[in-house]
Structures are given as structure tokens and as C-alpha cells.
Amino acid sequence: MTVAQGLGQAAAQQAANKGIEEIVVTASKRSEKLQKVPQSIQVLDTKTLQQLHVTEFQDYAKYVPSLSYQTLAPNETTIYLRGVVDGGNANHSGPLPTVGSYLDEMPTTTIGGTLDVHLYDMARVEVLPGPQGTLYGASSEAGTVRFITNQPVIGKFSAGYDLTGDVVDHGGLGGTAEGFVNIPITDQVAVRLVAFDEHDSGYIDNVPSTRTFPSSGGVINNASVAKNDFNPVDTFGGRAALKVDLNDDWSATLQGIAQDMRNTGVFGFEPSVGDLKVERFQPDSDHDRWFQAGLTVTGNIGGYTLTYAGGGFKRNEKTYSDYTDYSVFYDAIYGSGAYWTGNNGQPLKNPAQEIVGDDNFTKESNELRLASPNDDRLRFIVGGFQEEQSHHIIQD
Fold first, then answer.
1. Alpha carbon distance 368, 383 (integer Å)
2. Under DSSP, is residue 21 helix (H, G, I), strand (E, B) or coil?
3. Distance (Å, rounded) from C-alpha 396 to C-alpha 390?
4. Could you tell me the pTM of the whole model?
5. Among 5, 108, 209, 287, which one is least packed by beta carbons within 10 Å?
């Protein structure tokens, strides 16, 4: 029995005891009960996310049978659904992935890794296996993953917070502080604010070591960067949303979301060095920041639902990666160290190298769609979608 099957049986038993719990989803670009969606869809709703303590990608990935992934670091993960792959290797200069990602109404798909969205105050996570290009466009050949946030509730004040602490096996201490508040401003306006701060302890040890460059005979050590548990992750951010009921039929929601993730070290180890141990000689770090702002306007026209959704998305990722072992290898095999010389014409004693990366992603999108009533025997959705995106990449 898989975990997902176990959860399904538990949910069935709970439904038998308390009655069937209805889950409303928007996978088909309209609000409808999960049982009536005519397609394969896997959903983790608010209650499930809380019960399973899901806060990040690798948490929810365990409970979706059709989802697999390749990961190098917390924010460098490529998702696959039903094993459909375009041959891309998740490289930042490769093709766009075959699984699209959406945060509420806006696409956030980027080359080189799906956003590792901190999952707090979420309404649900929807995973749609199979081709979704008709409704979700580019990068949805194999499926789409949607993160749906809790929206402001008009006329009701609510607030909450969560504090957690943890100890990482072979590592140190970590913890999370997060909270939200829903504030009704008037009988037609409400604001929802969310903030979070998370520290994940490292568990990889960078052990003291030396390297020798054959061409110059220079010997270097990693005393300046050797450290136990040298790959911690710190993530903080927040969300602000303003909802306005323009009248009985129309509403508008303006929302901004930002997240900042910083980690050092690496997330693999070298078996020849030891369990959860590596030998690195230059600083390794990754600073990933992103921001999304969007406006959604929804209204009824003669029983039909008209929706506009548009906004912008920016992501900047700065990385430093140790290249020393490659430098030593090329020197030993090809004598490349002889070409790195000082003012005296002699090979440098330390020709070690490091990669400095700077990736900037931008995305702007606009969508307008008209949906027929849910209770019509013949239903349709018609609309148009426009997107402009860019990726400026520097690798020194």
C-alpha cells in the first residue's frame, strides 16, 4: 500500500463517520466539486496540508503518486508527471520544463527549477497529470501543478500563527515561525496578510582536505571553508492581498507575494570521502529571490462568469559554485595549469576556479476568459491568453 492509498482509505473512513466532505477545485478554470471534474486530478487541501505538516516541495511530492522529480538543491528541482520528459537535463540554459507551475492565476514556470513555494496559509495544491496545454499553455505538455492561496474573506476577522522546532539527523537545530491575519476593512473590502521565516539546519560536512596542481606543484587546502553542517537554508517572505466587492456581481483582488531563500554548501555527498561528507575548496552559495504581483477581476454577465487575470513575475538567482576539482582534473589530464601564469611567467600555485552565476527571469501575462454556468448540460470556456517572458543568464 502506498502512502497516498493509505491517506485515501483514511479519508474514506472519515467520510463514512462524518459524512462526505466536499472539496472545491478550479482545475478546469471554474469552481466545481472535485467529484465532478472530468479529468485526473490530485488535491491536497488546507486540512490535509496542515495534518501532514506540508511546508515545501519535497513534503507534498511524497503524496502524489504520478509525480517524480530531479533535484540538486531546494530551489533547483525539475518536476515530471507520468514519466513524460522532453530530454531536458534541468540545466539553467536548457529548454523549459514539460510540467507547468501556477501560483493562483499566474504562471511561474522557469528554466532550471520549479519555485519552492513556502506552503503556508494555502487553500490547496492541485496536481493535474497529462496534457494541460488547452487551459494552461506553455510547459504543460505533461501536466500542471497549481498552488492556490487562501484569499481575503470579507466581513470576518481571523488570525493564526504556527511555531515549530526540529532537529535534523546528522545536523543541527531548525525551526519555523509563520502567521496570518484576515482584516475586514468595510463590508466590501478585506485584507489578508501572511508572513513566514524558516531555518533548515545543514547536514553535510565539508571536511578538511588538500589538492595538488601538477603543473605548478602548488598545494592548497580548504581550511577557510571547511565546516560541519555547512548547507543550511534560510527562507523568509510574505503575502498581501486586497479584495474588493465592487457590487453583488463583481469583485477584484490585488495580490503581491515575495520570497527570499538563501543556502550555502551543497546537497550531495561524496561516498569516497564519507557518509554525508564532501571536500569543497571555494564558497558554495545560492541566493534565490522572487516576487509576483497580480490582479484578478471576476464578474457575472447574464449567468456567465467573466474573469480577467494579469500581472508580473520576477526572479533573480545568484550562485557561487566551487570548480576546484575540475581545475585539478584538467591540469592533470591536459596540463591546463601551465596556461595560468603570473607576472613572472611561471604557472600559478593556485589556479583553482569558481563559477559565478546570475539568472534573471521576468514574466508578464494577461488572460481573459468567459465560462458558461456550471449547471448547464453543455458547458464551455472561451478566452485568450498572452505571455511575455525572458531569461538573462550570466555564467562566469
1. 5
2. coil
3. 20
4. 0.87
5. 5
